[in-house]
Design goal:
- By secondary structure, this protein is of the alpha/beta class.
- Helix content is 44%, strand content 20%.
- Helix 1 (17-31) packs parallel to helix 15 and helix 13 (346-364) packs across helix 15 (386-401).
- The strands form four sheets. The protein has a ten-stranded mixed beta sheet with strand order 2-1-3-14-13-4-5-12-10-11, with helices on both faces.
- The protein is globular and about 75 Å long.
- Bound molecules: NADP nicotinamide-adenine-dinucleotide phosphate and magnesium ion.
- NADP nicotinamide-adenine-dinucleotide phosphate is lined by residues 74-77, 96, 285-286, 302, 305-310, 323-324, 369, 371.
């Protein structure tokens, strides 16, 4: 078989530990035999981030802005223990945080679902994607605890000299006060990313806040979404999808009774909480994909899970591992599909589709990594090592591609 051609390179962001091992295996088994792979390679592994004073992370984000599509391996976010383990010069910031800030992007998380793994919510038939606004609200708050009576006020001093002052509460005794904010600019970026992504995957978009109670704050979110939606309305209609706004408590009730198959955009705190609930209900962190979408339509695909440290230590001792590659493979397939669409390469799009189909073939035959064995029902699963699993997928992919 002639290898599938690419035009524009993908931005390839390599990472750490077990996922770095899987990264190479996936390339060797599932990509390089079939695709004439073009990437611009950035090594975001912790040793190289340390060596380059984290410049490599910034460079990779800039490359994503320039080329439009990136695929990222999981990376270590250093903590005190990692400082000594890797002999670091500094406790470098989370690469995901840096990239997200540079692209001003929103993260969309979608579970990979298969018939033999039943969601905890019996109505759910299709994946639910959570989009979480990643700026402001309680995550950038200021708080005061008072031990005495007194008055708390909200004060705004405009550059024009305009001054607004409101009493929050007159305390008769001890209590707590919290101030938080968001910006029109950040909310608008969030809205653009959500509408773009909904069009991309042709799924209806839900957004919910508590604007009946928080008339100005949450009301601003609702108004900006409504305003930005006007730019997308015609394209939504043409794609046969909807934008749907409701109150957050109504949204929760509807989500529980829904079949799935839509995107649920959440404010920062709601997204933090709901994404953990939704992903747990769908089964496994190892089956959760993630894509960062910028308001101007740049994409960075990755797995939602981390570097699977415990498996890596086993691997270093020479023991067999059975690590689930699914979310990392789907990061690659997502990136290839997007690249293929942008460069008008139907063969590359088809390769992405067949790669995912080969994964489903394998799982539906009960061939899997260890983590899914106890979740599968109505099928007798067989647990494979990391490499055996990838080879089983490769066999099915080759058959599908006629290679
Ligand atoms: P983790 O790597 O996601 O792993 C937590 C546990 O979940 C694993 O020990 C494993 O359970 C299970 N698991 C996760 N992915 C799996 C897979 N593909 N196959 C099989 N089992 C899987 O989270 P962590 O241990 O909290 O974090 C490890 C490192 O990853 C940290 O340094 C953190 O900074 C980093 N991290 C990076 C990202 C990212 O780059 N996006 C995200 C989160 C964390 P068992 O051990 O029970 O098998
Ligand atoms: Mg959380």
């Amino acid at each position: 078989m002639e290898k599938i051609k690419m035009i524009t390179p993908l931005v390839e962001m390599d990472g750490d530990e077990m996922t770095r091992i899987l990264w190479k295996m996936i390339k060797d088994e599932l990509i390089l035999p079939f695709v004439d792979l073009k990437t611009e390679y950035y090594d975001l592994g912790l040793p190289n981030r340390d060596k380059t004073n984290d410049q490599v992370t910034v460079d990779s984000a800039n490359a994503t802005k320039r080329l439009g599509v990136a695929v990222k391996c999981a990376t270590i976010t250093p903590n005190v223990q990692r400082m000594s383990e890797y002999n670091l010069h500094e406790m470098w910031k989370s690469p995901n945080g840096t990239i997200r800030a540079m692209l001003d992007g929103t993260v969309f998380r979608t579970p990979i679902t298969i018939p033999s793994i039943h969601p905890a919510v019996k109505f759910w038939k299709k994946p639910i994607t959570i989009a979480r606004h990643a700026y402001g609200d309680v995550y950038r708050d200021v708080e005061i605890q008072t031990t005495e009576p007194g008055v708390a006020k909200l004060v705004f001093e405009g550059v024009s000299g305009k001054r607004e002052e409101m009493v929050i509460h007159e305390f008769k005794g001890p209590g707590v006060i919290e101030g938080m904010h968001n910006t029109d600019e950040s909310i608008r970026s969030f809205a653009h990313s959500c509408f773009k992504y909904a069009l991309d995957v042709k799924q209806t978009l839900w957004f919910a806040t508590k604007d009946t109670i928080s008339k100005k704050y949450d009301g601003r979110f609702k108004a900006i979404f409504e305003e930005v939606f006007q730019e997308y309305k015609d394209r939504f209609e043409a794609a046969g999808i909807e934008y749907f706004y409701t109150l957050i408590d109504d949204a929760v009730a509807r989500v529980m009774r829904s079949e799935g198959g839509f995107i649920w955009a959440c404010k920062n705190y709601d997204g933090d909480v709901m994404s953990d609930m939704v992903s747990t209900a769908f089964g496994s962190l190892a089956m959760m994909t993630s894509v960062l979408v910028s308001p101007d339509g740049k994409y960075e695909y990755e797995a939602a899970h981390g570097t699977v440290t415990r498996h890596y230590y086993k691997y270093l001792k020479g023991e067999e591992t059975s690590t689930n590659p699914m979310a990392t493979i789907f990061a690659w397939s997502g990136a290839f599909r997007k690249r293929g669409e942008m460069d008008n390469l139907p063969d590359l799009v088809n390769y992405a589709n067949q790669l995912e189909a080969a994964c489903f073939d394998t799982l539906n035959e009960g061939l899997t990594s260890k983590d899914l064995v106890n979740l599968m029902e109505g099928i007798t699963p067989k647990s494979l090592t990391s490499l055996e699993f990838l080879r089983a997928i490769r066999e099915r992919l080759a058959k599908r591609l006629g290679a």
